[in-house]
């Protein structure tokens, strides 16, 4: 065992932004003045097949070592590493480690909505191979039989796949306000009068039913009524006991069962409807991994759902969809109560001024990051690819912004549910996310994230393991039965991959959503050392690490594995 000695210039040099090409950056980093020290073990100390260096939190005298300063010329492999750096990441370093290899595994996860275009075995397999990490079931469409088919196919894929896993997310319909059925689409022009009524079964060229009995009470003269998030708009002129008379502002073709919003207002409906409860029970029976709960207005809704899940013995994470005006004042308490949030920009942009949406997106991502919660950016990310084989340049930028802001996941809706090019959409999202990640400076953290988590030893270890991994340029290996330590590490955003080994299939599936986590199922044995060696051997055989590469092995968490409750440690092991 030998103590690692490093110069003080490592962290300051590598955590600051550097301009110029990757070659210039590499040359700057590799100057002798800023280089680290090489540690040689004392004479006669033989390395075993897997050598390791242990780091202790407490200060203690290290074993005698011979410390020799080195320059780039002293490392025979430097040219090979620089060539790898130039080839894979010409425009940026993905980690802060001086000798780290560029990260080529995508960290930001992709959520795909499964629908008529993708609900076959062949398409789900192809989506998974193209980059899908989470399969989303939109309960606003389809029935339990169609969703059961998709769940069974995803589970079949997970059972057969050796090195990949797909999580299942059930997205509730929520208290949506929709127009009724029309015999045929109605074309409306600006300035034309049109009426919405709470009477059932009305569908004429100048009047249509609404499925919400309090609709008349919720709107006032002067309100702006939006159809499908603003594809059409109506100005409320007056109302009667059962009808709302409007003037068409932005016309178009009105079809059956269109989604209605009132600008700046939310419907006075419960966030979880009777249909939602039926769908939630369906999710419990099928052991889905996540619920995405629509139109959450306050934390009480989340507590109610979590209490129900606890009574059922169901371990399902709750993702709140931020999409109503009423949720914004309660944002902090809602996210605190949940396991994560989804920025549902469609309805959010309908109920609030559209110029507020990008600001709220950044605020929600930052809030989730600071609180250690997962966050997904959704809606219209590649909308044009529903009908076109290539995206707009603005859509590409939208993906890149979500990745740069630190989102755990980015979501496809109609693009994969009923679009013409679902596989191409996933590939575009994968490519853009991977390319963007390659330009993000490694080791950066929000200023307060280190303080937020320091209320438990595990949080402190996750923080320092991330700093160590970033400094040395190593991947991180963690063993977990609950997933909590892997999730903690994910929220600190280490520069390299987090390989999370678990002996629980359900935990493996949940971890598929979290940024930077590669969840791997493996049976644990009672011998810690044997398990460590087997895990590193598995990573090497699958090409995830190379012989001679170092990894940071973290033993911490609220539930001890192969250690005492009071003992936590980080090791650096050589494969």
TrEMBL record:
List the InterPro entries hit by this protein, alphabetically: Pyr_Knase, Pyrv/PenolPyrv_kinase-like_dom, Pyrv_kinase-like_dom_sf, Pyrv_Knase-like_insert_dom_sf, Pyrv_Knase_AS, Pyrv_Knase_brl, Pyrv_Knase_C, Pyrv_Knase_C_sf
Its EC number is: 2.7.1.40
Q: Which cofactor does it need?
A: K(+); Mg(2+)
Q: Which GO terms describe its cellular component?
A: chloroplast stroma
Keyword tags: ATP-binding, Chloroplast, Glycolysis, Kinase, Magnesium, Metal-binding, Nucleotide-binding, Plastid, Potassium, Pyruvate, Transferase, Transit peptide
* Ranges of residues in domain Pyruvate kinase C-terminal: 462-555
Chief location category: plastid
**What transmembrane ranges does the database entry give?**
none
Report which reactions are catalysed by this protein: pyruvate + ATP = phosphoenolpyruvate + ADP + H(+)
Q: Which GO terms describe its molecular function?
A: ATP binding; kinase activity; magnesium ion binding; potassium ion binding; pyruvate kinase activity
Q: State the compartments where it is located.
A: Plastid, Chloroplast
Which pathway is this protein assigned to?
A: Carbohydrate degradation; glycolysis; pyruvate from D-glyceraldehyde 3-phosphate: step 5/5
Which PROSITE patterns has this protein been placed in?
PYRUVATE_KINASE
Q: Where is the Pyruvate kinase barrel domain?
A: 106-426
The domain of life for this entry's organism is Eukaryota
Q: What family is reported?
A: Belongs to the pyruvate kinase family.
Provide the protein name.
Answer: Pyruvate kinase
Q: Which organism is it from?
A: Lupinus angustifolius
């Amino acid at each position: 065992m030998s103590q690692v000695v490093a110069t003080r210039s490592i962290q300051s040099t590598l955590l600051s932004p550097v301009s110029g090409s990757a070659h210039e950056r590499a040359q700057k980093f590799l100057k002798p003045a800023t280089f680290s020290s090489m540690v040689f073990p004392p004479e006669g100390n033989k390395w075993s097949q897997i050598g390791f260096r242990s780091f202790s939190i407490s200060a203690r005298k290290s074993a005698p070592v011979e410390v020799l300063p080195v320059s780039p010329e002293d490392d025979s492999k430097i040219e090979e590493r620089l060539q790898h750096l130039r080839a894979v990441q010409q425009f940026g370093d993905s980690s802060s480690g001086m000798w780290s290899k560029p990260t080529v595994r995508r960290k930001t996860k992709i959520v795909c909505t499964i629908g008529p275009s993708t609900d076959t075995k062949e398409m789900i397999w192809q989506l998974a191979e193209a980059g899908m990490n989470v399969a989303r079931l939109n309960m606003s469409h389809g029935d339990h039989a169609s969703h059961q088919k998709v769940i069974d196919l995803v589970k079949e894929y997970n059972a057969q796949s050796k090195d990949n896993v797909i999580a299942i997310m059930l997205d509730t319909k929520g208290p949506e306000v929709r127009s009724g059925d029309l015999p045929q689409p109605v074309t409306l022009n600006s300035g034309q009068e049109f009426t919405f009524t709470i009477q059932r079964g009305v569908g004429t060229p100048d009047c249509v039913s609404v499925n919400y009995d309090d609709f008349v009470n919720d709107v006032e003269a002067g309100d702006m009524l939006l159809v499908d998030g603003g594809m059409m708009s109506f100005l409320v002129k007056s109302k009667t006991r059962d009808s709302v008379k409007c003037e068409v502002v932005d016309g178009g073709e009105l079809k059956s069962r269109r989604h209605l919003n009132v600008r700046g207002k939310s419907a006075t409906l419960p966030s979880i409807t009777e249909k939602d409860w039926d769908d939630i029970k369906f999710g419990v029976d099928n052991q889905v991994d996540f619920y995405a709960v629509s139109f959450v207005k306050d934390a009480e809704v989340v507590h109610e759902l979590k209490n129900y899940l606890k009574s059922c013995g169901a371990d399902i994470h709750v993702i709140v969809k931020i999409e109503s005006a009423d949720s914004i004042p309660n944002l902090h308490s809602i996210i605190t109560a949940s396991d994560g949030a989804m920025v549902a920009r469609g309805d959010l942009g309908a109920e609030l001024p559209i110029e507020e949406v990008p600001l709220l997106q950044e605020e929600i991502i930052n809030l989730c990051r600071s609180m250690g919660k997962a966050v997904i950016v959704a809606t219209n990310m590649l909308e044009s690819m529903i009908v076109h084989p290539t995206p707009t340049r603005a859509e590409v930028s939208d993906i890149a912004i979500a990745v740069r802001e630190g989102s755990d996941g980015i979501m496809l809706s109609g693009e994969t549910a009923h679009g013409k090019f679902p596989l191409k959409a996933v590939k575009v999202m994968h490519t853009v996310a991977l390319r963007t990640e390659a330009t993000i400076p490694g080791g950066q953290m929000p200023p307060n994230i280190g303080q937020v988590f320091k209320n438990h030893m595990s949080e402190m270890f996750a923080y320092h393991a991330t700093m160590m991994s970033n400094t040395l340029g190593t991947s991180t290996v963690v063993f977990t039965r609950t997933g909590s330590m892997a999730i903690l590490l994910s929220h600190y955003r280490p520069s390299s991959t987090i390989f999370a080994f678990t002996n629980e299939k359900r935990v493996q599936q949940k971890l598929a959503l979290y940024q930077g986590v590669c969840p791997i199922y493996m049976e644990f044995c009672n011998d810690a050392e044997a398990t460590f060696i087997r895990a590193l051997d598995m990573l090497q055989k699958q090409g995830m690490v190379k012989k001679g590469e170092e990894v940071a092995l973290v033993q911490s968490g609220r539930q001890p594995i192969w250690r005492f409750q009071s003992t936590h440690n980080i090791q650096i092991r050589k494969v």
